[in-house]
Amino acid sequence: MILKLMIGIMCVGLFSIAQAESFLITDASQIYDVRIDVACEEDKCGGEAKIVLYQKGKTKVFQQFASEDLNFYLPEDRQPTLGETPMYGDQSGLMFGDFNFDGTEDIAIRSGNNGPYNGPSYEVYVYHKNRNKFVFSQELSDLTYENLGMFQVDPKRQRIITFSKGGCCYHAKREYAVLPQKGLVLVSESIEDAMRGDDQVAIIQRDLIRGRWKETVKLYPLKDIYPDN
């Protein structure tokens, strides 16, 4: 459930007007309600924003965050959607999930479009049980600045999955494990490389098995993989 309150008007430039709005979101998390204070102009919200968490059923602030550029679009009903990660598309301004597989909800907050190809970037905070608060994770945040938007999470295999590309013809999918005392460890790479210059596409698979990398490379005619080129 989302409740929206108009909390003011802020002029931007000579002709455009951004409205300072407050969204109360009650269905994005199983544990927390969220209030987002941000300026919106037409169907786009962005710039400096405040994100406030409340434990469900309570009015006392649990924790507060700030974003320099929350940056998200509003659908036709002007209610922000949270938790969406369409590939290469517009992603949500805020996401909850267990990003380090410790059984507790973590939070990712949009920090503008600072990823490759001006893609979404996020500041990721993981819940620290002993401190009873969310703490910033540099390595998880870095994944969003270095790859195509917010990473995906496979809870069954306990893997974090990222996607990257170089131009039209180089794509990489990487999987990370989260290991105690070590943090993120790259354990798998799947690469499609059509930039070899020999009319072939290399499909490369690398896997970390018992501490050693195993690699397989298969070559395919370029026209079979990219028939329209």
Automatic annotation (TrEMBL):
Q: Does the keyword Signal apply?
A: yes
Tell me where the transmembrane regions lie. Answer: none
Indicate the secretion signal residues. Answer: 1-20
Q: What is this protein called?
A: Repeat domain-containing protein
Q: Which InterPro entries match?
A: Integrin_alpha_N, XAC2610_dom
Coiled-coil residue windows? none
UniProt keywords (A-Z) are: Signal
